[in-house]
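[stage:ingest] chain + small molecule (alpha-D-mannopyranose)
[stage:ingest] validated
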Amino acid sequence: MLQRLFTTRLLKPGDLPPSDQAMRVVGVCNPAAQTFGDGVALVARVVEQPVEQRPGQFPSPRYADGSLVTDWLDAEDCDSSDPRLYVGRRSGVVRLRFVSHLRVFLSEDGTAIDEATPAAMLIPQGPYESFGIEDPRITKIGATYYITYVGVSPHGVCTRMMSTTDFVQFHRHGTIFCPDNKDVVLFPEKVLGEYVALHRPMPSMRFSPPQVWLARSPDLLHWGNHQPLLGGDGAADAIDRVGGGTPPIRTDRGWLTLYHASDKKHGEQGVGVYTASAMILDEDHPAKIVARSRGPVMQPEEMFERQGFVDNVVFPTAMLRRDGMLFVYYGAADENLAVCGFGVQDLLDACLPV
Ligand code: MAN
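[stage:predict] done
[stage:export] tokens:
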């Protein structure tokens, strides 16, 4: 484990009003973050559940034409062993226990939120976002901030993109990776003439543990030349889930990025422990891992990381150079939004050549 220079919880559910009086906020987590002017702009995932409860039924909220509606599921027909999901016992169909939207927050120094009132609110739109929008990442390319995010709907879990220059007006570009695919992070510049992304397909036929893939694009919208990059080899830290975490940053050893992994074993209940590891990708040939931490550099330690909506989760979604350190923005226990600091050299040194 790498020594953190500081850890600060920036937001917790009680800091935020719900988007609708029928809802309560149960999580604010997994934030995209990027340097904006002298400060930091964050796009956080806000997780809500209906206030109403009914005996013998479980609520599953969704958006329809911009409005919230709740479907009431027969509790007896639901497997609820994953705290995030209801799974129909007969149908196998999955519904979320919550619905998420995104809120923009600004921070002057990157270690405190200026105002809990969001600078902007992004509500799910259209058929590919009806079960919510989740887990954004921001990459600044030129003067534009590109935000990849997960759209959840009956069509599956896909990655969509929006862009902004001011965090007030957002332009939606639609789906860039079809279901089921999430944890998409964009590189901040073209590599040998092409845009590059890490993505995580989720095949339903489990021929191997999950894998992070790399793809290239001429325009950020059309992706091809897909290659597996990481995982699938039963690496000790990536048994159940593995996925890109923070958009890569350029260092003199190559592209440095954090990824998350969960250690849940096949057939085990619950979600396992979510940790984060680091890797460095070759500067010109990023499909090649040149160095990698042996084991996680972050694991749940603080109480707010170990206990929450989903226990034992650290989920880094942004890494920025600030004040001579690396600031890592992350979700904790799917409930809290936090930042911690690493020494630049400490994190680089933790990545050993492969
Ligand atoms: C999945 C996603 C994330 C979430 C983690 C941990 O990867 O649903 O949004 O933070 O699980 O629960």
